[in-house]
Design a protein that fits this description.
This protein is mainly α. The protein is built from 7 helices and no strands. It is globular and about 35 Å long.
Length: 127
């Protein structure tokens, strides 16, 4: 079973709903993500994770309201997965971040239009 299949069937979206509708949990999650960004294995996707963090911060604070709920929940689920020490491959094992990177990259592809729209509306940048 691939990481993506296991992720989509593993209840991560259900966990995302617990975070997405609780501003304090979201604040904690985004702080945890910030701490994860220094991990060597995540450096290649750092910009993508920063964009996800900014998007979620702006949705949570109400600074960005024109979002797709399903895409937002997928981003939350991916972030919860990345910060979780209890995922498919324990992060402390050699190569233990491969699953985290796989999930984050897949999620970025799935929500690319949503994040592009967010970036255009908040920064005026066109890609």
């Amino acid at each position: 079973m691939s990481f993506i299949t296991a992720f989509t069937k593993g209840g991560w979206l259900k966990k995302a709903k617990v975070y997405a509708y609780n501003p304090q949990k979201m604040k904690t999650l985004l702080t945890q993500l910030g701490a994860c960004l220094s991990r060597k294995g995540l450096r290649g996707i750092k910009d993508s994770l920063l964009l996800m963090r900014d998007y979620l911060r702006d949705v949570t604070t109400g600074n960005y309201k024109d979002y797709n709920t399903g895409k937002m929940l997928l981003i939350v689920a991916a972030v919860v997965y990345v910060v979780s020490p209890f995922d498919f491959l324990p992060d402390l094992l050699p190569g233990g971040l491969i699953d985290d990177v796989s999930i984050a990259v897949w999620a970025m592809k799935e929500v690319s239009e949503e994040l592009k729209k967010y970036k255009e509306k908040t920064t005026g940048e066109l890609e």
